[in-house]
Amino acid sequence: MQNPAIEYDYTVAKWFSYLAILFGILGMGIGVWIAFELAFPELNYVAGEYTLFSRLRPIHTNVVAYGFTLSGIWATWYYVGQRVLKVSLAESKFLQGIAKLHFWLYFITALLAVVSLLVRYTTSKEYAQFEWPLDILVVVIWVLWGISIFGLIGIRREKTLYISMWYYIATFLGVAMLYLFNNMEVPTYLITGMGDPLHSVSMYAGTNDAMVQWWFGHNAVAFVFTVPIIAMIYYYLPKESGQPVYSYKLSLLSFWGLMFVYLWAGGHHLIYSTVPDWMQTMGSIFSVILILPSWGSALNMLLTMKGEWGQLKENPLIKFMVLASTFYMLSTLEGPIQSIKSVNALAHFTDWIPGHVHDGTLGWVGFMIIAAIMHMAPRFYKREIYSKKLLEMQFWLQTTGIVLYFSSMWIAGITQGMMWRAVDQYGNLAYSFIDTVTVLHPYYTLRGIGGLFYFIGLFMWAYNFYKTMTAAKAIEKEPQFASPMAA
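== cytochrome-c oxidase ==
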């Protein structure tokens, strides 16, 4: 049971929860808009250059990855960290101040990042578009989080570090290393003494730049979209279900497997490029091996519900988390399949790739953050969840949206790949590029509709959270379950 002497300080966890909701709506709203732009190109020109796909797409990816997802990660960290370590932020004025500084500096940097991308200050490197002043702020933000992590660990009452803590620490260390190496850049003003002082050039060039970039890019997925989300589900699923983690040993085995294997899979983004062939092959091999630790984690989550599947009927948060685990299994099988050279020859540059990314992001990352925040809400405000029926409706609407999204993109991608490769009896290409665009129009429309369903679900989530905060039935004690580390 929770130690009654500890009064946990949820202030910063609440603030990051608000941001996760805000950035979720903003980032995915832009995503829905640009999805419909592909189906209906005239939407590109609604507000001149500012609504062009090329202008909005980097904002969409960065707001979802570094706005919605990071806010969700930090909301859960400032909740889970205190509880599994059995220490309150309020016990250290220094750490309490660091946590609040972390939030406000992050919020300001996030706003500057959106504005900078909108006015086209960009390095043009996927998932690493921020120019050097913002990179410096990102490093400071990350250091502040590190102080929070190791500061709380240093004053903890619980000797054992629960598995979720391992994953949060790995997130911090992994992103720190990757971000520093990939974002080494020199302001061009220092070299030439002229031009825009905010512009920079990478310290790497050509093939080397590509290798470092996709070492970072794929591991941004590893250490932002995967590792910290596993940290969440290892805490919230046992807490919500009252079931202990199926196998603690399997959780550790999967952890070290992910750490050793994931880091070397990024080369599969550069198959059939100027990168040395042995490195492309290594990326493919490590990607296939990655199935083992990924499925180890996912199966461990699902087996945690062994004998308790009836809870799926009663608790919509269990639905979100169980389906999140299922989408994690799907996505971590699909990615390695796409990395096999013969499959990649068909799939690369097609819409199957964003289909893969989005079934993981929407189904795994999105569902887990939604469930985690709705689990915390009754404990934040000592009120019941306002409407479980609304959560049920949201679950089914968003699940339908994800299925429409990834299935349409699977079909579109394989159709693209086959049409691009088709030749007539003379060896000439059988289809022009515009032929493929015409064929794909209905699938692009379906993708937009699927995204719209998911987007509407975010408003249902926001409304439910707000009503839980302000109008739900008050409870004297937070809901109690058997829980990891008795937190």
